[in-house]
Amino acid sequence: MSLLNLLQQAQGGQGLGQLASQFGIAPGKAEELTAMLAPAIGSAAKQQAESGGLASLLGSLKGEGQAAMFDDAAAAVAPEGQAQGMDFLKGLLGGQEGADGLAAEAASPNYS
Known about the structure:
Elements: H1 3-9, H2 15-23, H3 27-50, H4 54-59, H5 64-71, H6 73-77, H7 79-93, H8 96-106
């Protein structure tokens, strides 16, 4: 199962729409952003796996707090959820610069 499929199936298939409403964006725009972000995150995860660094990143995804964000869009957009997501992206993408670059790409006129 791809990361994109996993995100699309969250919350019984309603997760992206609920997350979009929490951020005040249209559900279709959330689908576009997810389709853009999922391959970038997947590629970074593959690079981490090939270099032996994926185990620590996957460890950061374990636990009840992470499951809550998958199950509840409000938990994902809460400050704690956003901080946890940013920490994950920084680890996956090699630091703040990589995470900021992906965020800037998502905020570009093509996707916003």
